[in-house]
Amino acid sequence: MDAGEDMVILDSRPMEEFQRMSIPGAIDVPGGELVYRIGEIAPRPETTIVVNCAGRTRSIMGAESLRSAGVPNKVVALRNGTMGWELAGFACDRGKSASYPRGTPQSLPVALERAKGFAEKWGVRTITRAELPALLGDASRTTYLLDVRDPEEYAAGHLPGSRSAPGGQLVQATDQWVAVRGARIVLVDDTGVRARMTGGWLRQLGGWEVYVLTDGLTGRLEEGGWRPDCPEAAAITPETVAPAELSALLADGHAQVVQLSRSLDFREGHIPGALWGVRTRLAKLAPRLAADRPVVVAAPEEAVARLAVPELQGLVHAPVKILAGGIAAWNAAGLPLASDRRNPEDADCIDVYLRPYDRNDGVEEAMREYLSWEIDLVHEVARDGDARFGMV
After folding, report:
1. Distance of alpha carbon 185 from alpha carbon 337, whole angstroms
2. N or C: at which end does the chain have fewer Cβ atoms within 10 angstroms?
3. At the top level of CATH, which class does the domain 7-106 belong to?
């Protein structure tokens, strides 16, 4: 880097992680975007491509995606990623947002040919929108319909019934979207590059029948985020409070808020004065709620808030309402947020795995422990007779 060598540093994590810590000079290109975007980012084959993540997994996957797709450049993974960088005594950047150029790249034809070869090698099939209902209607098999594009692209217009699952993260954390082994997975994309690359890796993970929907973004599309069908929540009809009304009530001390966000998201931004909670621990939270003013439940998804209402009603004496439109509506109204890295404390963050750099204490020790665990994964897989991978 200091010598000015012709290279690009590509961070293969989502933007949220990139902003927490990044290698100086890196740009954010999540793993599912790499083969799709590389022709615009590094058009010269002489350019060295360095792929990094926080540790090792996504950098290795990203680098191998580029190599397997036939990108002619020298491609390397940064050993131990941003954690290794800091453990070596170098400083990471914080709060950066450098990213790839948006829109369809001019190098699409080349990227598509590369992705087709990769997908065909690993047995990814194709399906049309006309054929899709037969799969979705087959009660004997679970079928997942996942849109692997960037979440912003998904929100701008997506196939009804599909769920946003950015390709790189879908491969990295498949269990967040796919709960059934042996299920069918249908991947949606606008150009087919990201779906095919993602599908090829899912096939190598083993056990899934993977399809790319070739015409998935034609015809009627829906806008906005994913809205899961939850009849249990829809059946609960609590009183709602609009964001502006809640803000006024809080200013006068006439309301109290329970916010059911992820703990890490709550730390970064929550309704001022809100108490953080998870539904499994509402009984522990209830003694902190006063009986003389209503409790307003706020959540990223309104369905979660609705489900919490009867649970809280059984624990407190105050009226229980929900924030209309959830946290997104509060943010859209331009209302303030509070942040506190120690609220909740590390020990209370039971809803997520705290990555080493999410912790407040013992960060370096946690980094070393994580990297040791990650390096030993190959041996762990070899010892686990249930692990079935399709790689050769």
Report:
1. 38
2. C
3. alpha beta
